[in-house]
Structure formats: structure tokens, C-alpha cells
Amino acid sequence: MMTGINIAIVYGHVSRNHGDNAITQGIVHALQRTVPDARIRLLCSSRGSAKKPFMQTLRSYEAQGNLDIVLYDQNWPADTNDLGADATPAKLQQLIAEDPASVLDHFQLTDCDVVLYNSSEHLYSYNAGDDAAMIKRLAPIMAAHAAGKAVICLPCTFGPFETEYSRSLFRTFVDACVGGAARDAHSLDQLRQLGEPTSNAFESNDVMLDAAFLRDYPDDAPADENIIGLVPRLDGFGLRAGREKSREVFDAAIESGFEQSRAFQVYANAAYIISCLGKTCRFLIQNPNDQPLAEAMVRAVRSRCGSRGRCEILGAASIEEYVENVAACSAIVSSRFHSHIFAYSIGVPAVGVYFPEQGLKIPGLMQAFDQSPYCLNGHTATLVDVTNALTTLVSQRSSESATIRTLVAEKRRRFETTLESWIGVRV
After folding, report:
1. Are 339 and 286 in contact (CB under 8 A)?
2. Same-domain check for residues 36 and 183
3. Backbone phi and psi for residue 330, each to the nearest 5 degrees, phi listed first
4. What residues make up the domain containing 385?
5. Side-by-side strand order, sheet with 350-354
6. Which helix or strand (DSSP H or E) is residue 66 part of?
7. DSSP-based three-state secondary structure for 106
8. For 279-307, what is the mean pLDDT?
9. 178 neighbors 201 (Cβ within 8 angstroms)
10. In angstroms, rounded to a whole number, what is the distance separating the alpha carbons of residues 177 and 179?
11. Within 13 Å and on the Cβ side, how many CA atoms surround 362?
């Protein structure tokens, strides 16, 4: 048994999105099971984290004894403005290499033995601006490696890397890790394109589970055969689009009542099919940003289907409540990655609708669970495509559910065994 070790999680996701929060909750739960005598330090951004409701849940874990929450300052390096034109990604990388101790001090990692990089999907670059964000995000990881600490990359989404600098930095990062993995098949391809990492530490043969799979889930969740959940997400909107572009897309969608968006059109077709099947459409809100789109969808369903258009919107104040809402559905249609994870963890099958500009993690996840026939590109999916996927999934629900639950159990056991071995490499 490994005792007396200090493990840091970089970073702890604390947001209004239940999926992001579940990543944090899952890795904390997993560490408490696999290395119960370790001291866990969770780095959360000082920019707004303390005010999010999920922080209260984390504070309750902290009160149990082996978890410390650190609110770190995102303003690194503090003298970026003084650097002026020299504040290039390459210059920032040089600063880390020259003085890793000061970086570790800034992020309060000096006394940690093992540093877990909990990225989610923040490792990508489309342009020079993304290069700068990437090296800043990796700063505590690269500093920890330079100081001789064990660095592990928890399963996450990688790429694309469309600049020469980001490809080089990603290779440097992979080679710095004593363990790591991709959480979806498309990210696994990004790893394989590197060739053989010099550390031979990354899992290159298969994907591993996103940490949200590792939180505790109910064993026997009751599902209502007459309810199908819908988890829409506006296309062209989100992390990869950037704040400014996302705002433009959202404002244009509001002005048009969302009817010009592909998300609206695809989910309108799904809701119509569900109504024709005599079932209820339940719009589930994983992220509050999805609420206006869901409200527009409800109006459209009722207008199009009349009395047959049975639909409702269901929010949730916590991850636990949201998972219960998913569990009550016989199946879901979702554009949210973590709604798939919640569904798969409790044996609820899902149709995936993804938009490539938001990344390829949904098709990558579904491929890993042998569910690709139910995965649709939202920009090209027709009414016939949606009908075929949804009706087939409903008819095959029992067998698909059993397959998914078996795979989740196998992959979950493998993750926890592998995590313990990774931590044990240098401790």
C-alpha cells in the first residue's frame, strides 16, 4: 500500500456544467478508493470557482479529511504584460525550463509527489492564440516534470494540433508523462500519429474511461419506457469556437428563434419521431446554456404535433439529480459528451448527434463502446437518418444496454488498476 504520498489534481473543474463537475468528482472518488492513504490536493481556478454550487460538494469532501482544495491564480506568469512581444509560447516554455521551482510555487505544487493532469478537452490548437493557451495550461505539468516529479495524464481528448509549435509541445508533454491515455478513439489516433513515445508510458492500444465514469452510480436505475431524453447543444457554440464567436452564434440563434440552427432542425426531427412513437420528449439540461434552445424546441414540438407533442424540460441542481433524470429515460438523444457517459454508466442507450466544429469526442466515445451505428453528424443527418437510428435503438434497447454496462464495468476496473500502477511507478 502506498502511504504518505501527496497527489495533486491539475485541474479541478468547477462550473455550471454537470459534465465538467463529474470529471472532478470521479477522479476524487477513484483516488480515495485506489490510494486511500494519499493526501489529495485539488487545484481549482480562483476565477469564479468559489461561487459555483458544486464547490459546496467539494468542500464537503474536504471536511472528510484527505482532500485539500487550492484556489490557484490563473495569472501566470505574473509579469506577462512586462514581457510584451517576448510573451510568446516558446518564451513561456523557456521560463518554465529555466525556473520550474517558481512555477511550482505559484501553483502550490512544491511538496507534491505526483501530479495528475486532468485536462478534459483543453489540449488542442488551431492557431497561435491556442498555442499560448496550451503552454499556459501545461505550465504546472511541465514544471513538475522538470523538477523530477511523476506526471500522469488522465484520459482526455487530444487535438487537433494544427500548428507546428503545438505538435512539438504535445510530443514533449507525452514524453514527460509516466502514464496517460486518451478518452476517445479519435484522440487515440492523435497519439498514434506521434509514433512511439520515448517514455512508452501512454496507453496506445485502447482508450480509457473519462474520469466521470468513476463517480458512484446507482445500480438499478428505474427507466420509464415511455420517456426518451433529449440533450441538445447549439452547433457552432462552445470552448473550441471561442467566447467571441460563441456569443455571435448564440445571439444570431436567439434572433431567429433557433430555427436556422442545425441543432434545432435535427432535434425537431427527433422530437417529431418520438411523438409519433407515442412517447414523451424530456429535454434534459446538462448545461444552463442549453435552456433557451430547449425552450424553443418545446414550442416547436407543441406547434407541430399538437396534442401528440408531449414534451417537458427538466433541469437539475446537482450531478446526482441530473443522473436520476437520465436514468428515468428509456433512451436519450444527446449532443453532450457527459450525458452519454451518465447514460452508459447506468445502462441507458443513446443516439449521439455531434457537430465536428465542437470536436470528435462523441463519435470517438461511441466507437469505443461499439455504438457507432447510432452516431450522427448533425450537419448532414436527415429525418430518415434520425428515424432509423432512434427506432433501431429503441427496438434493441435491452441488448444494447447489457453490452454497454458490461463494457463500462470492464473498462472501469482497468482504469483503477492502471491508475494505481501509474502512481506506483515513481512512489
Report:
1. yes
2. yes
3. -75, -25
4. 224-395
5. 311-314, 280-284, 224-231, 329-334, 350-354, 375-377
6. none
7. helix
8. 91
9. yes
10. 5
11. 28
User: How many distinct structural domains can be found in the chain?
Assistant: 2
Mean residue pLDDT of the chain comes to 89
**DSSP β-bridge partners for residue 202:** 180
Rounded Cα distance between 177 and 202, Å, is 8
Q: Does residue 167 form part of some domain?
A: yes
Check whether residue 174 and residue 307 sit in a common domain: no
C-alpha cell of residue 271: 422530437
Domain containing residue 388: CATH number: 3.40.50.2000
Residue 54 · residue 14 · CB < 8 Å: yes
pLDDT digits (tens, 9 = 90+) for 315-333: 999 999 999 999 999 999 9
Tell me how crowded residue 245 is: count the other CB atoms within 10 A of its CB. 14
- pLDDT of residue 86 exceeding 70: no
Q: CA 298 to CA 281: how far, in whole Å?
A: 9
Q: Does residue 187 share a domain with residue 242? A: no
* Domain identity same for 148 and 196: yes
Residue 175 and residue 126 share a domain: yes
| 113/111 Cα distance (integer angstroms) | 7
Q: Is a pLDDT exceeding 60 seen at residue 293?
A: yes
CA distance 185 to 181: 11
Quick check: helix, strand or coil at residue 120? Answer: coil
Has residue 337 got a pLDDT over 70? yes
Whether pLDDT at 191 is above 90: no
Alpha carbon 251 to its chain centroid, in Å, reads 25
Domain identity same for 209 and 228: no
203 and 232 assigned to the same domain: no
> Which residue is listed with cell 467571441?
244
